[in-house]
Amino acid sequence: MKTELILYLLDMLGVVVFAVSGALAAGRKQLDLLGVLVIAFVTALGGGTLRDVLLDRSPVFWIQQPDYVLVALTAGLLTVLYTYFFKPPQRALLVADAGGLALVSISGAQIAEAAQLHPLVVILMGTCTGVVGGVIRDVLLVEIPIILRRSNIYATAAIVGIALYLVLKTVGLATGPATLLGMVTIMGLRLAAIIWGLALPVYRLTDQK
């Protein structure tokens, strides 16, 4: 029970952080309050919604537990209030997004893991949970989705962190420490990409002469 409570709280924290990143992104586009809350909502809950649809989990998690909706909207509203009085740091959006990616990707993977799916599917579902909300946010705000930007290690960080989590569980490490190490790996890779501009190699097709 204690472990389930911790995982639930981490999941909620991921919703909060992603909602904050969505609200910050909407604020930069000068949306009205409703627009900000919509972007906060889809950023926080979009990935988990697609995951549940793909896994045929009914009802979708935030319909079954409306507290997720309340937390996402509250976090978005509090972000608006905070930024009205204080200017957030330049990289606040990227850092918030990195935190949300770490928290939500592992929790999404654990849902797929609980369904006893193949490890590859677990990685894909966890990555989907972590990145899709940000993709929807960027599309709605007419931005190049962060997952497609060359200068960002994003989905790769989620894949590596989830894979590490599964490997650690396989070798006998308890769920709690494995979860923490997976999240730290995702967060660390994402922040390293932000700070040092790490990126995957670019594929270029050159004309043959």
UniProtKB/TrEMBL annotation:
Its main location: membrane. The chain crosses the membrane at residues 6-24, 31-48, 68-85, 92-111, 117-140, 152-168, 180-203. Keywords: Cell membrane, Membrane, Transmembrane, Transmembrane helix. It is a multi-pass membrane protein. InterPro entries: Gly_transporter. The keyword Lyase does not apply. The keyword Transmembrane helix applies. It is found in: Cell membrane. One of its GO terms (cellular component) is plasma membrane. Residues 9-82, 95-169 form the Glycine transporter domain. It comes from the Bacteria. Belongs to the UPF0126 family. This is Trimeric intracellular cation channel family protein. It comes from Leptolyngbya iicbica LK.
